[in-house]
TrEMBL record:
It comes from Candidatus Lachnoclostridium stercoravium. Residues 293-347 form the PucR C-terminal helix-turn-helix domain. Coiled coil: none annotated. SUPFAM superfamilies: Homeodomain-like. It comes from the Bacteria. This is Helix-turn-helix domain-containing protein. Gene3D superfamilies: PucR C-terminal helix-turn-helix domain. Belongs to the CdaR family.
Length: 360
């Protein structure tokens, strides 16, 4: 970890020796230190657009009006920009010595962790948001009131790098957003957003499916404020993904705040679930119902117990539908044409799915 005071001291010494103002930006263009501790002059002199243009140019030095820039690079990666007042010729020797000194400072500090590693440790609760390593996630604090959302994207094994690339391009407008591989086929994405998490999740799912030609599930946490909340948000997104795979397999988007009865069942103790199954069905396991009857039951429940609409959607005669419902009644002991039995049937079947998951 690199001390801000040490970087500030290095910049102040340059000013004292060369009698020229100087400043230091990190590899993302964020101001780290300015001579005299005055952040106003480098921010006004060098806009974010100019910093990003220099970072993208690949050049070692760059001359502006009344100032010059020197790239700080090691391990083949740009990690900073040194800004000095005056021309390149006036600053070259001293600036290159300062750049070399800054490289040694970073090397002595063991080199800073990458943003992806920092995010991973924040999600896992191994870092707190107040640590200096997290500075790059705190840029543009004026936008912090939007709060952070954690998305968990699950796709095919080996797709992680491609998913990260798609997310980086899709959310290029948000400099603090970052994606990181969590496991095989699993990518976590943290992004500050306003109240648009469901829309963002749909966009993520559609874009990845369209560009990579793979199906993905996207789980979404509730909004948290501050980097310290990312660990909680990650746990919520992970729970939403698991609950979605158990109870809502036909859906691709799973919001932690909209898990319904599945979210309740997921947190029930196993003995309670087993007791409910016995009370409802009279056995220790849910009855075996063929796929046709099960599809009929779920469609009937989805249509709010409406016989006509269910028959229309299934392309069957009303009498055929009634026959199937009576067959379900015979096999389960529940007449799902009544509201109470319908709720008991739905809850019992969901608990049955949960019990299968727990046994795996």
């Amino acid at each position: 970890m690199i001390s801000e005071e040490l970087l500030q001291e290095c910049i102040d010494e340059y000013k004292a020796v060369c009698h020229r103002k100087a400043a230091l930006f990190d590899g993302n263009g964020e101001l780290l230190a300015a001579s005299g501790g005055d952040a106003s002059w480098p921010e006004s002199l060098l806009s974010m657009e100019k910093r990003e243009a220099f970072l993208a140019s690949g050049g070692e030095v760059w001359a502006g009006e009344g100032f010059c820039l020197f790239r700080i690079q090691w391990d083949g990666r740009t990690n900073g920009i040194f800004l000095a007042e005056g021309t390149i010729e006036e600053n070259r020797g001293a600036a290159l010595m300062t750049v070399g000194c800054l490289k040694r400072i970073y090397t002595a500090a063991g080199k800073r962790k990458g943003r992806k590693q920092i995010l991973k440790e924040l999600l896992e609760g191994k870092l707190t948001g107040e640590e200096e390593e997290c500075r790059s996630f705190n840029r543009f604090r004026k936008r912090g009131e939007d709060g952070w959302i954690v998305f968990l994207i699950e796709g095919n094994e080996g797709c992680e790098g491609d998913v990260e690339a798609v997310l980086s391009e899709l959310f290029a407008f948000e400099k603090r957003a970052e994606a990181v591989k969590i496991g095989e086929g699993l990518v976590a994405f943290a992004c500050p957003l306003p109240d648009q998490e469901e829309t963002a999740a749909l966009t993520i799912s559609d874009t990845i499916s369209g560009e990579l030609m793979i199906k993905v599930r996207v789980a979404v946490s509730r909004k948290v404020y501050g980097l310290d909340g990312l660990s909680k948000a990650f746990k919520e997104a992970f729970a939403a993904l698991e609950i979605g795979k158990i109870f809502y397999r036909d859906r691709q988007i799973h919001l932690f705040g909209s898990l319904g009865i599945g979210g309740l069942i997921y947190h029930l103790p196993v003995p309670v679930c087993e007791g409910f199954i016995r009370d409802i069905f009279g056995t220790d396991t849910i009855p075996e119902i063929d796929d046709e009857l099960l599809d009929t039951a779920y469609r009937f429940l989805a249509n709010n117990l409406n016989l006509s609409e269910t028959g229309r959607q299934l392309y069957i005669h009303r009498n055929t539908l009634v026959y199937r419902l009576e067959k379900i009644h015979k096999e389960t002991g529940l007449d799902i044409r009544s509201f109470d039995d319908a709720m008991a049937f739905k809850t019992g079947m969901m608990i049955g799915e949960y019990m299968k998951y727990k046994k795996q």
